[in-house]
Amino acid sequence: MPGLLPIDTLLIVACAWLAIGAAGLVAPRNTRFIARTLFPLGALVGIVAGLVALGSLGSPAQTAVLAIGLPDLPFHLRLDNLSAVFVLLLGIVSAGISIYAAGYFRHPGQGGQGTAPGVLCVEYHLFLASMLMVLLADDAYAFMVAWETMALSSFFLVTTDHRHAAIRQAGYLYLLIAHVGAIAILLSFGVMTGGVGGSGDYTFAGMRAQELSPFWGSVAFLLALFGFGAKAGLLPVHVWLPEAHPAAPSPVSALMSGVMLKTAIYGLLRVSFDLVGMTLWWWGVVALAIGLLTALFGVFYATVQSDMKRLLAYSSIENIGLIAVGIGLTLIFHAYAMEALAALALTAVLYHCLAHAGFKSLLFLCTGSVLHATKERSLGKLGGLIGPMPWVAWLALAGVIAGAGLPPLSGFVSEWLLLQGFLFSPGLPHPWLNMVVPVAAAIVALVAALAGFAMVKFYGIIFLGQMREPALKDAHDAGPWERLGLVWLGGLTLLLGVLPGTIILRIDAATQQLLGKGLADRVAENGWWMLAPISPERASYEPLLFLAFIVATLLFGRWLVRRLYHGRVRRSPAWDCGYHFQGPRAQDTAEGFSQPIRRIFEPMFRMERHFPTLRDKEPYYSVKVEDHFWYWLYLPVARAAAWVSTLITHLQGGRIAVYLMYSFVTLILLLLVARP
Amino acid sequence: MTFSLSGFLGQLFAIVLALALAPLLTGWVNQCRAWLQNRGAPPLLQPYYMLHKLFHKDVVLAHGASSLFRAAPFVIFGCMVLACAIIPSLSTDLPFAPAADALALVGVFGLARVFIALAGMDIGTSFGTLGGRREMLVGFLAEPALLIVIFTVALIVQSTSVATIVETLAHRDFIIYPSLAFAGVAFTMVSLAENARVPVDNPATHLELTMIHEAMILEYSGRHLALIEWAASLKLYAYSCLGLALFFPWGIAERDNFLALLAAIPLLLLKLGIGGFLLALIETINAKMRIFRAPEFLGTAFLLAVLGMLVKLLLENRV
Amino acid sequence: MNAVIPLSAQLINLFASVILLLAFAMLAQRRVLKLIDLFALQGFTLFLSTLVVAVKTGQSHLYYSAALTLTLKAFLLPWILHRLVRRLHVKGEVEPLINIPTTMLIGIALVMISFNVALPISELSSSIARGTLGIALAVVMLAFLMMITRRKAVTQVVGFLSMENGLFLAATSATYGMPMVVELGIALDVLVGVIILGVFFFQIRDQFDSLDIHHMERLKDN
Amino acid sequence: MDLFILMLAIPLVSGALLTVAGERAWAPNLNVLASLGTFLAAAGLTVEIVANGPRFAFGEQFFIDSLNVFFVALTAFVGLTTSIFSGPYMANEAAHGRLTKPRLRLYKSMYQFFMFTMLAALTTNNLGLLWVMMEAATLTTVLLVSLYRTPASLEAAWKYFILCGVGIAQALFGTILLYFAAERVLGHSGTALLWTHLVEVKGQLEPAIMVLAFIFLLVGYGTKVGLAPLHNWLPDAHAEGPTPVSAVLSGLLLNVALYAILRVKVLADGAIPDNFAGNLMMGFGLFTLLLAAFFLSRQKDVKRMFAYSSIEHMGLITFAFGMGGAVANFAGLLHMTMHSLTKSAIFFAVGHATQKTGTQIMADIRGLMKINPLIGWGLMLGTLAILGMPPFGVFASEFMILTHAMKHHAWATPILLLALGVAFAAIFGKVQPMVFGETEAKRLPHAPAITPVFVHLGLVLMLGLWIPPYLTRWFHEAARMLG
After folding, report:
1. Model-level pTM?
2. Vertex B111, ends B108 and B114: CA angle to 5°?
3. ipTM of this complex > 0.95?
4. pLDDT per residue as tens digits for the range D187-208
5. Mutate which of D415, D432, D435 to test chain A, going by most A C-beta atoms within 10 A?
6. Does C137 fall in a domain?
7. Which of A534, A574, D322, D361 could bridge across to B62 with cysteines, CB 3.0–4.6 Å?
8. Does D have 3 or more CB contacts under 8 Å with B?
9. Number of domains present in the structure of chain C
10. What is the DSSP letter of D147?
11. What whole-number distance in Å separates Cα of residue B265 and Cα of residue B276?
């Protein structure tokens, strides 16, 4: 349609999502209609959103003002390049998830437990629409409305199966932390309007126009870091994430981990680079430090999990940590006006957002298929699923390789860019920063390697080896819709992996918008197939060649071997060391696999272990790994609040004489004290 | 970047040379080790015989083996060939070199490691998973150490492209970089671990409790085993070449310098020969560690690498 | 101030003082029936002072007010309360929560506070009895205190009504009475309130077997 | 016929009628019908005032301007929906044997009288009459609270009566002082208590008297608003009375009391310098908010908890009006509307839920979503709305209050946010398990009236996203009048 601006199209997209959701209420129990008609429609709408965003990248920002909102503050919307990158992410990734969901919600009693499919459909599409609005919002009110609607709809999605107390608690924790975070964000906006005596203009344009002192700028940044960090899962407000992701149905986990966490990153970028209007170098250090801690923490805990979705959730924490590291690095470079390098780091951030959205959604969806096929979430009861579920298994492999940050898939590109960024940090004009920051690269490297460990554990224990439970033999592969969704995301992961140049050329508009400088020139100079952000002599990466080489060697080698020798295969039992009772139980359990990590990094974990003794009639071994933060932070806070409450409830002691006395004393005090 | 014919031929030659030389290097190390340990040495060409024999044999697959198990040897082999293709052994004029810089090289090794660990877990025997777990344990410690070694060098050279590193280092006046010394020690330790050598692993053992590499490939046979063994040789070759490129880059031919290329071949053989002997020496005078000493060993390597980087930043940035 | 204080003002001040005194007496009184009698006496004094104001200012509605006070506060309400106490067999003793001397001391302090608070306002007053506002405030405060320190429902109600007396004193003496419609409304409210309370007493006794308010301490949060 | 007189006459007459004939079969319908009539009259009156501006009635004794017509419309509306809700609710209570026919009659007649007193209190121009009507409202609601005649309800009613009686006595003293001050300016005439006259001379009122008067009025009416530490009657009365009564207490009576304070504040602001009244209200508001928030987490009874939530919101509104200025007043009025609508919707849902499960103890209520999805969703959405979750309108007003506070009273912001956060944690943590989970339920003899719940929530949702321009104008007008 000519004359229809991208922002209008996106508004129509949001409305379409809402309409699709509402259509779910027409026949709330008609699973077939909802799954086969509405969810694919939602996917289609998502693709439209993605394409529109892709098309609008590089064009000037568009704004719109809606007739709704507060009387003095109607909804302001704005589609600029930063938003467009994230809308692209939202549209493309959610399309895959929606397609998958069309197949996932097919079973009555599965996925839709407790909540009618129609209601689920409403919540799901409301969630999508609110995320889109978060990305488009251009004033604090619209942003907060969209932000909290997003939290709310995802909360309902998380508690879809609300019959389990654990799921309810997870939902509660999630919404509570989201709310606390939202409060911090609101405060941050307030500070950015100038606080006391400020303009009080809550449009983003007003915030941009506001000149803040360094102190208040820092306050705004730290509040935003806390608020968005609470949504993204940064330490120490990460605790909801490993609870909520496993509790939610898999498409929802995928959407939350893949897309929703990125909206928090979007918000942080929006505030730090666009709204607050200044950058101090130590902000970067704070973000970097928190990011490193988060990444380390996330990956450590990911390796020791025994629940597949919890493992992925902790892995998300790790990835968000890496993204925060990237943001920190960008801030540091930006503060010293080293814009080319800041652009490098920021590209790494944006790229990792895209990459993580793709592969983590893919992995969560794979766990969904596994869950469907086996009704099992515990790693200790899975195994050998590559046999019955080859589609899921091979696509999961793509996700795992990307998740481990290995070439030639998507996760590697961003880690590579990030490390390249670190290589330049010794050039920082600050005496100790230029020494300390490169060391952070060592931690990033450690995190990446540990992520590999976690991913191998995840994949090996679920899909490889022997089946640990006999019931797994009946597992079936994913249905056509689910496959389509998985293939979509798998393809995305591959594309992001092998075409970094092309993609960076597109998303560079956002970098240029935020920093005034981008990588596009360099990338365009060296050709679309090559990624050389500075110059090919300095560093280069050609994933397409890389992949082609390995595939060619693989095929050529196979052809040659068959040609020169033969292709004969014989089957026999596995070698049993002469011990005939080797069953599936001889394999490593999930706990066993991560035992070295637990042993090496023991102080990081809070463990409760039970060892069998000789006298046990039914000997067993168990280990429970808990988060230190519960005991260091959350329980003390909860206890303090409870203590205050107990203290205060004494005021309501039931005696009317005492109540009268309150009134009496208040009156007398006011009479004596209150003077104008 | 132009794809000159000479460059392409040089690249092809480097790959063929790697494929050919790698088993020889393994044989040489084995022979040296036998000499040092006072036992009769196998023939120098023993690895070739073995590969030939294995390729001839039927593949015996366990019942539970999946398609991943069968694909893994090819992937691993492909990764190692790629690694050898981009590490300058003779010449820095390698058209494939921009495909992956030193960081991506670490990624290639990581990819191979993930596949071999997964393949080890695939059959579902106790050894396979044990091997996979230990391999990943070694990997997550060795990989960052290697990365930091490369980082240190890259900081000196201001590039992560291996070819540029070699060119720059070879052209520089001889300056003693203390950081390079640290990095070199760390690199050696990492190489030992990565190539399943004593003191972290013992390539010659099949004693169950100490195996790492062998535990994973226990179920492989025939051409699959041949490819994996060949890939292991290639890995050793690649690491050796990488070490040479990073720390002894002299003699590697540069672009469009045909004569130097000819001179580079004997020089490479000489350097590899010395390197192989030293490796055998290290393996002889050390004893295999307990598996839980390995993290300490690699932790030390990691620490040395970071220390090297710090030294670079502290001392040499001022220069 | 050398000006001769007019008789009416002297009378009003006198009656106000008597009301204050009666408030103290009520605070010290231990027996329920005596308390009601004192309340009736307070009402009667209030009637007298209202009458004086009415005569002095000649406002007709103050006469109605005075009549209303007489019937309601001096006769009707005490009568209702008397009946209630007898019908409900309330024990004669009133057990205070705080002992009487302490209550009195607090009462003295309250009077001082009230006077202190009312002093700047009294000086602005153009009416003949400028001091009465402070006294009225003190009566309100003392009634408040009585409500706090007594544990019988009936005594709390008497305290409540005594507080209304204080208010009424303020309304008539200090301001020469509120508009008629308001006063009627106030009177109606008080009457209805007492009737409702009367019904309440029976229900409370039915449910708790006592009019002791410490039975009614079960709704609480701690 | 004059709509205003009609509006006051309908509840008065139907109240009297119901006192006599409240046991007839058509009585519940009459109750709804009368409320509908009141609402229609109020709506018509609103249209009239919005179109023609303020007007007097009964001489100058009654005065309707855009400020109180807003409260009138709200009161009549919630009165109507509550009467719709209370039909099946009370029938169910009677079916369970908790209420006898005479009590039902008492309920209906008192309900209408209560509506009358509130509407009269809102529209009167005479501050003395305002006091009389407030006292009368107390008396009617005391009877409503004690309707069950259980020990607990009697105790609650007793506390309510005594505490509010004493409170309102203080308000009377304040009114007398106000009269005393006004008399010096306006002379000893009947006009000295008429707000319209007072407001014209507010600058001449003696500050020293006005300070005292305002303190007494604030403490007095504040008791009824539920300002801490004068709030103690409120949770008891809400928890032990019938649920429709809790709904109107929370949704309407507190508003009316606050309205009284607002009227007086306008005068005090004119007379006393340095924003004395505003500061006092801000202090009370914050204290109340904080205290109520911490009370919430210890509650076991669902109605009691929402009563504390009402206290909390009254604190917030008081704070907003205390800040003063067009934006804050607007936000305060908006928040009052939102709170009334939302809280009464919650009480409707809670009422049905407690009837279905037979208990008010939250730990024993589970799985409302399964018992009746509409009640479950109603309670869930209502709770989220009252907690200030967008896109519901409570958030809109809280947003405005918070942003205004950030701009002008930054020191208060952390306290506000702390309280809101604590309240969120407490309430949501308790409601969520009630709504979710598994349970057994019994059937009720009379189908519950769900419509009011969703009508209210729909309005709240709409106002969160879009406030109609005429409503905005009207609110602005009212906010301007508050200064």
Report:
1. 0.90
2. 150
3. no
4. 776 678 888 888 888 888 888 8
5. D432
6. yes
7. A574
8. no
9. 1
10. G
11. 16
